[in-house]
């Protein structure tokens, strides 16, 4: 998410069409991955943690859309200064991603039957997010689930 946000902010500064296209496509993929992973993880949670995770994932998507709208405004009206709005949106995205990571840290402390599975998945996601290699996060989770000896059911 960090690299997608940085690309969007840079494309708002450069106003080059190819930069905007790359930022939009990268962001679309990363947002899709984050929403999918968050929704899957939310099925294992209950109550407040579930709501926090889903709300934070939704906020990431909404703020990234807002960021892209400011980029579009910068491209359509090259003389306007949208850098303050771009930096504000990027801060809001970072706050929402931090909330997702915080809920992930809370999931590590769970003591139910699927705890090892959750810990492995969350560690993989946190490593991916720290390395700014966001698209690998979902591949890691899906690969683990596909090769897991456990019966992996998100509803349980």
Question: What this model shows, in words?
Answer:
It is a single chain. This protein is mainly α. The chain has one domain (2-146): Up-down Bundle (A middle domain of Talin 1), CATH 1.20.1420.10. 79% of the residues lie in helices and 0% in strands. The radius of gyration is 17 Å and the shape is elongated.
DSSP strand tally: 0
- Range of helix content: over 70%
Assembly context of the chains: single chain
| N-to-C order of helices and strands | HHHHHH
Question: Describe the biggest sheet?
Answer: none
Proportion of beta-strand residues: under 5%
- CATH hierarchy class name: Mainly Alpha
Structural class given helices, strands, pairing?
mainly alpha
Number of helices: 6
CATH topology: A middle domain of Talin 1
The N- to C-terminal Cα distance equals 29 Å
- The CATH superfamily label reads Talin, central domain
Q: What is the mean pLDDT?
A: 75
Radius of gyration (CA) equals 17 Å
What is the count of structural domains? 1
Provide keyphrases for this structure.
single chain, 156 residues, mainly alpha, A middle domain of Talin 1, elongated, disordered C terminus
How would the blueprint of this fold be written?
Blueprint: H1 2-14, H2 17-42, H3 47-76, H4 83-108, H5 115-130, H6 135-146
Helix pairs in contact: 1-2, 1-3, 1-4, 2-3, 2-6, 3-4, 4-5, 5-6
Summarize the structure.
This protein has 156 residues and is mainly α. It has helices spanning 2-14, 17-42, 47-76, 83-108, 115-130, 135-146. The longest helix has 30 residues, at 47-76.
């Amino acid at each position: 998410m960090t690299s997608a946000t940085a690309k969007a902010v840079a494309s708002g500064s450069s106003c080059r069409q190819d930069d905007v296209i790359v930022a939009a496509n990268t962001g679309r993929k990363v947002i899709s991955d984050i929403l999918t992973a968050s929704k899957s993880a939310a099925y294992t949670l209950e109550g407040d943690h579930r709501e926090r995770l889903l709300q934070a994932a939704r906020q990431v998507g909404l703020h990234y859309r807002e960021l892209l709208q400011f980029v579009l405004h910068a491209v359509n009206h090259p003389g306007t200064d949208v850098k303050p709005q771009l930096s504000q949106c990027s801060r809001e995205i970072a706050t929402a991603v931090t909330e997702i990571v915080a809920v992930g840290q809370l999931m590590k402390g769970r003591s139910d039957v699927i705890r090892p599975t959750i810990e492995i998945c969350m560690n993989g996601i946190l490593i991916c997010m720290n390395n700014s290699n966001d698209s690998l996060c979902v591949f890691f989770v899906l690969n683990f689930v596909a090769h897991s000896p456990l019966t992996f059911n998100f509803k349980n």
